[in-house]
């Protein structure tokens, strides 16, 4: 029998943080989602990308939760953390 293992503490903290933004009110409109996906086509700081689209940072956290955007989950997740579209290389 395999015993489930908790993620590394930093990764767990990141997941707990984005989980706070899983609710539908952070989803935004399809237009907001498309604008954020475009803004994060290249890796850039989380807060910078949100500001470039003039939306609340909560929308970015939501797309991290859904997996549309990604980050280095082994580093603390901060407004300055690099975020990019899932599947694109972080440069």
Task: Describe the protein.
This protein has 91 residues and is mainly alpha-helical. It has one domain (9-85). The protein is built from 4 helices and 3 strands; from the N terminus they run H-H-E-H-H-E-E. The protein has helices at 9-19, 30-39, 46-53, 57-66, and strands at residues 44-45, 69-71, 82-85. A 3-stranded antiparallel β-sheet has the order 1-3-2. Helix 1 packs across helix 4. The longest helix has 11 residues, at 9-19.
Radius of gyration: 13 Å
Number of helices: 4
How many β-strands, per DSSP?
3
Can you tell me the overall shape?
globular
**Spatial order of strands in the largest sheet:** 1-3-2
How many distinct folded domains? 1
How much strand content do the residues show? 5-15%
**Helix vs. strand class:** mainly alpha
- What is the helix fraction of residues, given as a range? 40-55%
- Give the H and E element order: HHEHHEE
Q: Identify low-pLDDT runs.
A: none
The overall pLDDT average reads 90
**Biggest β-sheet description:** 3 strands, antiparallel
Our measurement of the CA-to-CA distance between the termini, rounded to an integer number of angstroms, reads 40 Å
